[in-house]
Amino acid sequence: MHPLGTLDELPPDYRQALSARNLVPLWPSLRALLPPQRPAQRTQPTHWAYRDLRPLLLRAGELTPIEKAERRVLVLANPGHGLDAMQASAAIYLGMQLLLPGEWAPSHRHTPNAVRMVVEGTGAWTTVDGERCPMARGDLILTPTGLWHEHGHDGTDPVVWLDVLDLPLVFFLEASYHEAGARQPTHPHHGECAHVRAGVAPRPLFEAASGRHARYPLLRYPWSDVRAALLSLAADQPALQAVQVTYVHPTRGADAENILGLHALMLRPGQTLTLPARSPAMVLHQIEGGSQVHVHAVAGARHAEATYTLDEADTCVIPGYTPATLSNRSPGEPAFLFIADESPLHRKLGLYEVRPDPARPELDAVARSAP
Ligand code: GTQ
Q1: pLDDT score recorded for residue 45
Q2: What is the CATH number of the domain that holds 241?
Q3: 0.85 exceeded by pTM
Q4: Which of 266, 279, 315, 329 is the 20 to 30 Å CA partner of 102?
């Protein structure tokens, strides 16, 4: 490749004349904008151990009353983006939120989409668009763009959950803002009761669908149901490598939210599973059991390889375009992981890629079945 001209090679008067007219020469920056073969990624493989994070989050509960925090959250910030950027990856924001008994995080709505993965505690609830969603370990609760939501806690012990938002992307698009609201009136209905089995959905022949919940009819995905679905899939298909389900919109079958993908993966006892390099970054959160995550070394990548031991409630991020190998550390029990990734975004933008690995043709089957 012929080396391109640099800024220094241009006469100062010419550069000044360009700047004064808001003009910039492309060629000195062309390779940085369009690097060869793979993108220049800021996202670093990063692991957050719940054992380390939890005491600091509980201390925030002593230091900062809910009224002074509104959302009492420690952000899981990827050092590759700089901690101030508060990003886990290019499009994903992660936060661990603490709510203490009797506290209330007031109603608001915002343009970014959010989900909550409940980490510990019982007795808390999130009201989304008037539906009161109880929170228990492993439950996933959606708060999609524009829907009012507030959190409360009637139990006796602290409740912690993982917030996953597409905030970095929406902020980059200069479209991030919120609106504050009053306490929501609640209605008695629950989407997960109306959508209790995949394959059948409420659709009366004679009654117009009520507009209110037409867009997001299912807001809470109880962990007990998702866990049972994974165990059933694993038992039915013993040869299936990636025992994985995607959280979907119950009537459209599309991803549950527009921008980030949400999945649950079961590793069989003792299983090792290699995920191919895909363009989207992904977040793993250990719901049950323990695993080991190896992020592979990749030629030309800015990040090094990394190996993490994931215990229950630990979280890690794997950059895009990077293969990873997951292992269940238990020979006797399944391990369950929650996965959030950027795949719907990449697919909608036409950027989605799975990179075949010539050294591992056996991965192509996994690549085709990956979310
Ligand atoms: O609970 O509504 O971690 O608005 C960041 C922004 C949580 C929330 C976050 C939010 C929320």
Answers
A1: 98
A2: 2.60.120.10
A3: yes
A4: 315
